[in-house]
Amino acid sequence: MKKFITINVNGQDVECAVEGRTTLGDFIRNEAKLTGTHLGCEHGVCGACTVLVDGRPMRSCITFAASLDGAHVTTTEKLGQDRIGAVLREAFHEAHGLQCGFCTPGMLVTCRDILARHKNPSEETIRYELSGNICRCTGYMNIVAAVKLAAQRLNSDEVK
Amino acid sequence: MSKNLGVGASLLRKEDKRHLAGRGEFTSDLDIPGTWEVAFVRSPIAHGKILEIEAPAGFSGHFFTHDDFPDIKPIRSIPETPGFRPSSYHCFAKDKVRFVGEVVAVCVAPTRGEAEDMAQACFVEYEELPAVVDSLQALEPDTVLLHDDWEKNSFIETSLDVGDIDAVSASAPIVIEREFRMNRHSGVPMEGRAVLTYWDHRLDELVVYSSTQFPHQIRAGLAQHLDIQERQMHVIAPDVGGGFGIKNILYPEEIILSALGMKLDHPVRWVEDRREHFVSAIHAREHLHRIKAYADREGRILGVDADVYVDAGAYSHWPNSPFMETGMVMKNIPGPYDFRNYRARSHTVATNKPPIGPYRGVSRPAACFTIERIIDEIAHAVGKEPFEVRMMNMVKKDQMPYRTVTDLLYDGGDYGECVRQTKELIDLEAVRERQKAPEADGRLIGVGFASFTEQTAHGCGEWVTRGVHVIPGFESCTARLMTDGSLHLLVGIQSHGQGLETSLAQVANQELGIDPDRVSVRHGDTSISPFGMGTFASRSMVMAGGAVARACRTIKAKMAEIAAHMLQCKPDQVSFSDGALHGPTGASVTLEQIGHAGYLRQDGLPSGMDPMIEAVETYEPNIATGVFCYSTQAAVVAVTPETGAVEIIDYAVVEDAGTLVNPMIVDGQIHGGVAQGIGTALFEEIPYSDEGQPLATTFADYIMPGAAEVPHIKIGHMCTPTEHTEYGMKGMGEGGAISPPAAIANAIRDALSQTGAELNETPMTPRRVKAAIDAAQSKV
Q1: Superfamily of segment(s) A82-159
Q2: Which of A41, A93, A143 sits opposite B16 (nearest CB)?
Q3: Which chain A residue has its CA at the smallest distance from B498's CA?
Q4: Architecture in CATH for domain A2-77
């Protein structure tokens, strides 16, 4: 049996009938046609599929779309239009915070959440907060560096 | 002087933009109308005969088995090594299954969910056979055979005997006898495998998208296994979410998807899930080394005697076979050390597990683990600081080039200096000082070192020696100047995180003075570039970089002639920089003017010159035996003796990869390699039950290192350019992953030196560490 739902994805209402088992990740990729959200493990561990649901990070691979009728979802594609997200993208580029790019969408969403909650996170805080996102390429060194760089830039913004 | 954008510049990557915008294009992202999805029916048992395969009524046209594709040739990879027993790896299991996860049938449906539902509704009846899961037990005479026509469960046995190990064993005062195990694990890229195929009617060809590291080899391999001419086979590796060797074999699933693409009148796609990845993508390592090492009272190694067992799983894969792992470990156990007596016997064992194949480091993590643990045990036996014993035994600078006891030719460098610099970077003295007082939290601190050499950029001759039947001895590039003076580099290599879209553009800048932003590197598509071998064996920068350099130089000569004609000077008076060609008097022409003349206004060319500014070149280094990167890594650990928990509190790497094209990318490769090595050392394992059932099939039971487990990594570089490659580059992509198991094991040994506990098996989980401490204490 399908359920008719509306989820606002990056500012656009996406309406469709979904099966009970359809995950938010599949909904975003197949119905909203946004393939920036990657499915790395499909059992809620690797974090590649992390998106913001009503402002909070969630694993879209283990969240059912049918449970989110009326929710507002933000995916990696939208982060460029947000000050923290835009600064993070720049910082990931400059600090070489990505290699193959597969975990990157979830990393960016998680890092945006870290910087929304921590003005000046320590290396220890960043590493702890990143513990739900697996990256196989970078050894996390330059992801941590990117978050630090982004925090620095956001703080100097405020000074200006 | 303009800013360096060429060799040596840490240029930011061209490939970042699409990934940061969420616009990468991986195989699962392709949206081709009419695509149906695929789910496999896989064997739930490790070993058995297939009695019956049954699909519900109405599945016709959606469900396929071996009987639907009887003409697909089985995968039979036969290295040119005498005595090798080939396996027939049928893409759909035929008559028998030999590991949990082996493909038995395939279901095709409009969505992945429906295809999975169908796969679940199929019924296969098996007659179970005993599972063979242990490499020693597999070789026992009464053990059931995996392959009925073999006389034992072994792909091949080989041996090596150099010097006089018997004489050494009769007289050596120090004997270290140990067993070292590196258990089965895998590369586990974040993107699993994925394949999409369809018949392109306009071009009359099969299009195969695959998340692979070597599309050209896949094209050849697919054509060999299917009834199709290679001209009708177009393989594309779009964005690939990591490979690490795991996407460097031809998979049965790729062959099946291709066969479906030829049979069905719509595109079909398979996107692997994580469980499938754990049970059916290739695994790695699973080494058992039984070692006797001999030394004198000073700690000088006199010889090593080794029995090497590699649990290679059920089948040999295309193109390299599992003997690659075993052959390489035999050759690499001596490491960077100078000794002349060495005997090794190898066993490449068949068991009811997925095939093993290449994973970053290929056999060297296990070789390094063994020899570096031995070095430390010799040091303990003679009462010396392991650093001193390491230095004493290492190949010296004035011995270079040095031919090892196993016939590897180390081309140059200062191995001892690398160890010394690592000692500085980790601050050995400070750790020794700290160890004098107990830690406030009761933990035990230890430091360990591990060194290695990494053979890279192998030429044709080296691969011939190894007996492989596909010889990846070259790379290729077409350099094509466009009419507006921008440049295409069409390369046979494939890049999946290594940043070659950037670093190869830097090579073009080095040769032609062109802005890397005016260079497009096109890779991963068999219809775009000349044939190439792909990204593995730490070869891409040296091999593809060499091909780019050569192709650019060929068009450069022609461009110089055109410029000389325009500037009324001689070609050898023309210099290239900042996107222009300069004559001796200060006058210059732009790359655009050259491109324009080359294609659109041939009347501007010197008389008699052919139009077009394009060249295809191949490259092979001028030394067939490869160039050797070398490195030493050191770890400081804190061990909690009550629980066996290990935390890495400091980590240092010093490496000599010759000339670095993009140092930022090189450091990134080291970071990632070390993190994977830490996974091997402490976390990652795919154990099997006695029945051959995999016990790690999710990220809940297969622990990947996270940001909190990987420490800050300190890196130092030495630079000994090699004379054998372009610019003096050496490959380095795998190295980071080689040392960590050994360095960390030695650090744990050092931390536990009061108890004498040793860790000689990976991963060194809290349970194993605690057991080692308990065992050592019970001896006291």
Answers
A1: [2Fe-2S]-binding domain (1.10.150.120)
A2: A93
A3: A99
A4: Roll (3.10)
